[in-house]
Design a protein that fits this description.
The protein is built from 7 helices and 10 strands. The chain has about 270 residues and is an alpha/beta fold. Strands 3-2-1-4-5 form a 5-stranded mixed beta sheet, sandwiched between helices.
Length: about 270
């Protein structure tokens, strides 16, 4: 990626939006929760602060249409001649083998693309977000699909909302797990963390078996906001790459230069 290009890379997720820009040779990333008031203004202001002349291009990948529309409106309001590239499956130079390619989450495909540029295939890409995705890229660089599990917060919210005695937990990335848990909060938190880590380890082994690969040699790439909570508990060696989707957006070849699209086309 040429850091001279003024590009804002935006990953519009289910609960947060991440925006990345190059300031000199440094990639700066801001993550904003949708619960924050006027989050869309914060995103645009971040780009204006770090790219004083404003970005020439916005590259946006979204799995959340309503939030993407809101951000688009703020971009146009602030900079009416903005050029927005809405990244689709066709934008990503990675072959896909799934039943319904048009329904594949763009964040998953971008993660696979960026991971395969960094590490030898076959590889597994694990993204810890609202949901946890565990995707397999085969020896030939083909995105072959994956599995989806509920993330840390979804699991804890489900337990607290469907039971009378179990508490609602807060997660800030500093959580630890103990075995066994010595109180209710510890039992719930540790059960979720260790259970998810064990599930990921088991899936990596199953992937390795399915492609007749020694699981010790299978490259595993970890990303996402909750990666640091899980990483110490994984048995398999792995590489941690923060903000993998933003890196992928920066590394996509070319820019279509399409004008901002209408909100109902997101």
């Amino acid at each position: 990626m040429n850091s001279e290009l003024r590009i804002a890379a935006v990953d519009v997720g289910n609960t947060t939006v991440k925006v990345a820009v190059f300031s000199g040779s440094t990639l700066k990333v801001l993550s904003v929760d949708y619960g924050q008031a006027h989050w869309e203004r914060t995103v645009v202001q971040f780009t204006e602060t770090n790219l004083p002349n404003s970005p020439l291009f916005w590259r946006i990948a979204s799995v959340n249409q309503s939030s993407a529309r809101k951000l688009e409106g703020q971009i146009i309001k602030t900079k009416g001649d903005a050029i927005i590239d809405w990244i689709t499956r066709e934008s990503v130079p990675m072959p896909v083998s799934v039943d319904q390619p048009e329904k594949l989450g763009i964040d998953r495909l971008l993660g696979g693309f960026a991971a395969s540029k960094r590490y030898a295939t076959p590889l597994v890409v694990v993204s810890f977000g609202t949901a946890v995705t565990v995707d397999l890229i085969d020896r030939n660089g083909l995105f072959t699909g994956g599995l989806i599990l509920p993330g840390l917060r979804l699991q804890s919210d489900s337990l607290s909302s469907r039971t009378e005695a179990l508490p609602e937990l807060q997660w800030d990335g500093s959580e630890t797990a103990s075995l066994p848990g010595k109180n209710t909060v510890s039992a719930v938190r540790s059960g979720i963390i260790l259970g998810l880590a064990s599930a990921i380890d088991g899936l990596i082994m199953k992937y390795a078996d399915s492609i007749e690969q020694q699981h010790q040699a299978l490259n595993v790439v970890i990303t996402g906001g909750d990666a640091t909570t899980i990483t110490h508990h994984l048995q398999h060696d792995h590489h941690i790459v923060p903000n993998l989707v933003c890196h992928a957006l920066m590394e996509l070849p070319g820019t279509t230069g399409k004008p901002s699209i209408k909100s109902n086309d997101v």
